[in-house]
Amino acid sequence: MYYSISSPVSSQFKDRGSRFLAFAHHVRSAEAAKELIDGYRNKFHDARHVCFAYVLNEPSRTERSNDDGEPSGTAGKPILNQIIKRQLSDILVVVVRYFGGVLLGTPGLINAYRTATELALQEAEIISYEPFATFRISYPYTSMQAVINKVQQVGGKLERMEYGDQTISAEVSIPQSSESVFAQWLNGQYEICQSVS
How many CB atoms lie within 10 A of CB 125? Predict the structure, then answer.
């Protein structure tokens, strides 16, 4: 079980003419985070800096931050510290800075990026998530309903289904708390192609 935000949120903070626009998203992968960051860089192409931090849960805990040209440790780290302070995971926060003509100095930058992030996260609804385990399985068409029923019973979901001549192959995401129960049910009945990490 871990905590993250339920939906995207944003905020704005101003200091001596500079504007700091913060955007927070629930993300599940570094690829998803990169896509959002690239999107903000394109959308705010005229901004001086697009800084970010994210924390991911799977496959292992990952923390990353980026100052995007601000003095080292004055942007990405304060954003990351706000995420860690709230014990959040699978979250990305991007802070876009429009320079206002006045240098804020190291303490001013740290405060601005921290405050913009804090304001955004104050707007967020924090909810609990359960990590999922993913299997690739193969089963005959005649067993399709039984598999669907069992996946739903354990709170999982069927994804990426491929239909062959005799069998269906699918990725199945199961809450980790139900992983062993589901694996035992599969064992001997259906082919487990692999456990996806």
Answer: 8
